[in-house]
Amino acid sequence: MAQAQFTKVASRGDIPAGSGKVVEVGGKTLAVFNCDGTFYATDNTCLHRGGPLGEGMLSGATVTCPWHGWEYDVKTGACTMDEAQKVATYPVKVEGDDILVGV
Prior knowledge:
It is built from no helices and ten strands. By secondary structure, the protein is mostly beta strands.
C-alpha cells in the first residue's frame, strides 16, 4: 500500500472546536472536523443522499448531515444508525498551526 501524501488543508484557527470545514485534497472533497482540539477527516459526502457532512452539526465526535439527519462517527466513519455503512476516513496530522490530511 502506498504511503499517504500529506497536504495542508487549513490552519488550526480555520476550524474552531466543535465544527467542520469542507476541503479539497488530491481531487477529493473531504470534511475536516475539530473535536476539542483533535482533528479528523472523512469523505464529505453523506451515503444517504450525498449531503455535505462538513457543513453538518458536530456534537462530540458525531456529525449530523445537514440534509436528512444521518449521523456519523468522525473518528471511524461509521454511520451511527447502521454501522455497516461507513464513509472513508483519512489520516490527519498537525504540524505547528498547519492541519495536514493524507490521501
